[in-house]
Amino acid sequence: MTRRRLKVIGIGAGNPEYITIQAVKALQQVTTFFIPLKGDDKADLHLLRREICERYIDHDRYRMVDFDIPDRARDGAYRSDVSDWRAAVRAIYLRLLTEELGETDLGAFLVWGDPSLYDGTIGIIEDLRAAGMEIEYEVIPGISSVSALAARHRVALNRIGQPFTVMSARQLEKGLPEEGNVVVMLDTRDAYRDLDADLDIHWGAYVGTEDEILRAGRLSDLQDEITDLRKKARAEKGWIMDSYLLSRRSDPKD
Ligand SMILES: C[S@@+](CC[C@H](N)C(=O)[O-])C[C@H]1O[C@@H](n2cnc3c(N)ncnc32)[C@H](O)[C@@H]1O
């Protein structure tokens, strides 16, 4: 059986300088990059991945294989939509690894931010391994959007002695966790509005990029402005990627 070799490389969440030295070393060894085209942001993020390769690889012994990632259906139950979508992406990965990667090649997926955070690449590779495909792979961590957001706002994510939670906007709609700060990602619904607590927000869109927008302050003072900014940015660029840290104003500051 052909053994496939792969690297899953975290490229950081927006700034080409978020690339780590470990990632640069890995990039230099790769022969075949699999570059996803996905969603409204595809042209911009595709370009960034290519820019990273051109900037950090000092030879031309590699090739790029573009592939389309289908949009996830949003008309059925959330879990079944996600599992159908994942099966479709798994079939694409299977084809790529079978047809585009030889025994002597080293393939790579360049993952936005960090591969361990809201990203399906590791899960899909594990599914393929479980189905019998022989894949040897390494994961290179990247600077996640959570770290980038905290750094750009110069804040700590947790208060001393408290946990913090990272969650999707879908989960936030069910309510805030009882304790600790919250980082919210994947917000397509302005889920920060009308939460029943007195909160501070540290919000960032396109963090680390030239288009970065940051706002911080009391949520009730800022929520209309943020909703407005999100709408305008989405209209101008065609897509938005933003996240935010929420903290209770009543919690003791460190
Ligand atoms: C599918 S998740 C991928 C997260 C990624 N693996 C990471 O480590 O940040 C995409 C979400 O991450 C957040 N995100 C990613 N990049 C961002 C950036 N540059 N600025 C703000 N939020 C970002 C947004 O909440 C977006 O909806």
TrEMBL record:
This protein's name: Precorrin-6A synthase [deacetylating]
Swiss-Prot/TrEMBL keywords: Cobalamin biosynthesis, Methyltransferase, S-adenosyl-L-methionine, Transferase
Molecular function via GO: precorrin-6A synthase (deacetylating) activity
Reaction it catalyzes: precorrin-5 + S-adenosyl-L-methionine + H2O = precorrin-6A + acetate + S-adenosyl-L-homocysteine + 2 H(+)
InterPro entries referenced in this protein's UniProt entry, alphabetically: 4pyrrol_Mease, 4pyrrol_Methylase_sf, 4pyrrole_Mease_sub1, 4pyrrole_Mease_sub2, CobF
UniProt-listed GO biological process terms: cobalamin biosynthetic process; methylation
Enzyme Commission identifier(s): 2.1.1.152
Coiled coil spans: none
UniProt pathway annotation: Cofactor biosynthesis; adenosylcobalamin biosynthesis
Top-level taxonomic group: Bacteria
UniProt KW Disulfide bond keyword: no
One Pfam family of this chain: TP_methylase
SUPFAM superfamilies with a match to the protein in the record: Tetrapyrrole methylase
Organism of origin: Primorskyibacter flagellatus
Entry-linked CDD domains: Precorrin-6A-synthase
Domain Tetrapyrrole methylase: start-end pairs: 6-222
